[in-house]
């Protein structure tokens, strides 16, 4: 039970902590000053949403996201959100690939080298179908979480920051809604693909509460750190590097590698959602379908990492508010229908 719960917890975290989140760019787009209450609300909304999605997926024993989506939004508009989820997974995977190119530039490598590298690694990962992703997440996600927390706590202590010094500023509490909405849509796609692998409701509780708590702690500390360097963020494609600007090179190197793994896990989750959705239409090996999908994305990576995040993420956050509302009110409308 605990092992399975942690397996799904890391899948959820790996889907959420991608290039946008781990780099700090996504957090700064939504939060910033006056967001302490917003982050608390995000933890509550996120945990409830994960529990509802996983419960439906477990009940349906689904292998792709459409059956779960139909329960959440209804039969009439589920085709619209089916298209939206597909476009979301597609474009955010492009963002992850762009993030890989940006991370490669930190090592003075050409932008395209980072993109080709992530494509090759994703294809290799899915030679074992879904099991390869689950095994990878259980190994790399604990390292990523601990590494990110180490850097953020080190920065907090070095700068003598107070974690609750901005708690009286709560004017941005509404940011919790679009930020959570942005992050639940890919979870429908990913968790909807593994419903047939869940075995009990207890592991759903562990995954939902554990992922919400971990992401809440990281988000709060990260946002508090970004507030202190707000004037420098405009100078950096990746805000995390602004935090690391006065640290030794080995620390920058270590976090760049972890950032790439964050990018990789979210790209892998996006590819999982896309591929499981398309397997019924194309009789190709799983890894080959992954390769074809990624090949179509490469031209779009020329748009740039921060540009893609600043345009797409707030847009998706607003469009997905209906899905979030349905998830949060799920117990009420299910009881009404019965």
Q: What features would you describe in this structure?
A:
It is a single chain. Helices cover 75% and strands 0% of the residues. By secondary structure, it is an all-alpha fold. The protein contains 16 helices and no strands. α9 crosses α14 (305-319). It has helices spanning 2-16, 19-23, 25-30, 36-60, 66-73, 78-105, 111-125, 129-158, 176-191, 201-228, 239-243, 249-278, 286-297, 305-319, 321-328, 330-337. It is globular and about 50 Å long. It has a single domain, classed as Hydantoin permease, CATH 1.10.4160.
Summary keywords:
338 residues; mainly alpha; Hydantoin permease; 16 helices; 75% helix; 0% strand; transmembrane; membrane; YkvI-like
Summarize this structure briefly.
Keywords: Membrane, Transmembrane, Transmembrane helix. This is Membrane protein YkvI. 75% of the residues lie in helices and 0% in strands.
What layout of secondary structure does this protein have?
Blueprint: H1 2-16, H2 19-23, H3 25-30, H4 36-60, H5 66-73, H6 78-105, H7 111-125, H8 129-158, H9 176-191, H10 201-228, H11 239-243, H12 249-278, H13 286-297, H14 305-319, H15 321-328, H16 330-337
Helix pairs in contact: 1-8, 1-9, 1-10, 1-12, 4-5, 4-9, 4-10, 5-6, 6-7, 6-12, 6-14, 7-13, 8-10, 8-12, 9-14, 9-15, 12-13
InterPro entries: YkvI-like (IPR038728)
Protein name: Membrane protein YkvI
Transmembrane segments: 34-58, 79-97, 109-127, 139-157, 177-195, 204-222, 249-274, 286-305, 311-333
